[in-house]
Design brief:
By secondary structure, the protein is mainly α. It is built from 10 helices and no strands. The two termini are 28 Å apart.
Length: 192
């Protein structure tokens, strides 16, 4: 309803923001094709008429969708595209997201050392969402490095942050990591 209202009012950026939020929800619900279509609509809207400052966040959502669809090469290209956008580097929150997601994409491509380097470069954040994602990325990295203690410490950190912050959106990601640590011979499902 809000999206239609914004559209009627001519708030094209508001519609794109609503679409990006919807894409994130669809991603969490594992409706990947719908998430991708919705996200690509938001990107097209901003590319055609909106301020570029929103583009990085929308592209980051697309990269997460691409990774969930098993398209790590596309996700890497999308994340690298964000890094060359004007002013993207000045958005600390976006840069934290990008580097966290790069850890997962690099792990999906088997580039464990590069993923370790990205994870090591992540800084602490007061944003609970960033903390949860950093912990989850660290858990997946620990699994890839066969450092079970690191992986379990990160998993526990993610659980605690989710519990304290109420960000239930990460519950499935935590469950995926728990399962991956119990069954390390199974393929990794690298999503938050």
């Amino acid at each position: 309803f809000r999206s239609e209202l914004k559209e009627q009012m001519g708030d094209r950026i508001g519609v794109a923001n609503a679409d990006n939020t919807r894409a994130n929800v669809l991603l969490a619900l594992e409706c990947y094709d719908d998430a991708r279509t919705t996200c690509e609509n938001a990107i097209a809207e901003v590319e055609s008429s909106g301020p570029e400052r929103f583009l990085g966040g929308y592209l980051d959502t697309l990269a997460q969708i691409q990774l969930a669809q098993g398209k790590a090469t596309e996700a890497l290209a999308t994340l690298q595209h964000i890094l060359v956008l004007p002013d993207a580097g000045t958005d600390t929150s976006l840069m934290h997201d990008i580097h966290c997601h790069l850890v997962l994409v690099l792990l999906a491509q088997g580039q464990v050392e590069a993923a370790q380097s990205k994870w090591d470069s992540l800084t602490e954040s007061n944003d609970p969402r960033h903390a949860i994602e950093r912990y989850l990325a660290g858990g997946w990295l620990g699994r890839a490095l066969r450092r079970l203690r690191l992986a379990e410490e990160c998993l526990e950190g993610a659980r605690q942050q989710m519990g304290a912050s109420g960000y239930r959106l990460y519950a499935k990601g935590i469950k995926r990591l728990e399962k991956a640590l119990r069954f390390p011979s199974q393929p990794a499902d690298l999503r938050f």
